[in-house]
Amino acid sequence: MENFTPVSAAIGGALIGLSAVLLMALNGRIAGISGVFSGSVFAERGDKLWRVLFVVGLIAAPAMWTLAQGAQPPFEITQNWPLIIAGGLLVGFGTRLGSGCTSGHGVCGLSRLSPRSMASVALFMGAGMATVAIAKSMLGA
Amino acid sequence: MGRNIAALLAGLIFGLGLTLSEMVNPAKVLAFLDLFGNWDPSLAFVMGAALLVTAIGYRIAWARPKPVFADQFQVPGNRRIDQRLAIGAVLFGIGWGLVGLCPGPAISALTFGGTPIFVFLASMGAGMALFEVFDRSPLKKSAA
Lengths: 141, 144
Known about the structure:
- The complex is a heterodimer of chains A (141) and B (144).
- Chain A has 141 residues and is an all-alpha fold.
- Chain A contains 6 helices and no strands.
- In chain A, helix 2 (33-42) crosses helix 3 and helix 5 crosses helix 6 (115-139).
- Classes of the chains: A mainly alpha (141), B mainly alpha (144).
- The interface between A and B is large, with 109 and 119 residues.
């Protein structure tokens, strides 16, 4: 557990919560990224611009952070293209079919004790952990 | 106007939270999912803090009759756990475990994640488009 960063994790998490609260208090909307993002393309006209602007903010924040810090946030990702493509397809299709991801079900749904969100989080966390365990055993790591 | 500025602000704060907590780093997310390896519980702290703030903040927000820039609070009322929810969550979890990216961090990493992020986002977009096709096709009935 030498990489455990509880303080920055809790501060960052509180900011994510603040964002979800603002979007509800001001616009009456759930801050579910998969739904907001997908809707920026597929939602009805008149329901798109706020979604696009939320996504712009999401992208601009780390870019501004990079300018202020003079360094990019730490980022390490697999270079295995089939894995990246399969992962992207599964995340895109799965979050839409299951009506949400880590933010919509994980943060917004759990905080209002939605039974659907509790089931979703248990399933995607379990599937994620199982996938990592299986991938590691197949690679012999 | 207010509603659009509010969304931009919320997006900025969300992105800052993901950056500060290092959730934009796939390796850090995978270290959380690696329960039986060198486990990094940071993601649980991110979720815990976010949940605490949201649970309290939502109650304060809902004490008002309506949102500041909208006519009503749009909160999902469906409480039924069905096959679509379960299959969707499992598929998402597998994809999350393969790469260490869920939608928020994937989008946030656009300016610094290089080619892998472009490929991941294109695939994620294709997966979402595939769902729109599936959702409008007769297949939907048999799977629902």
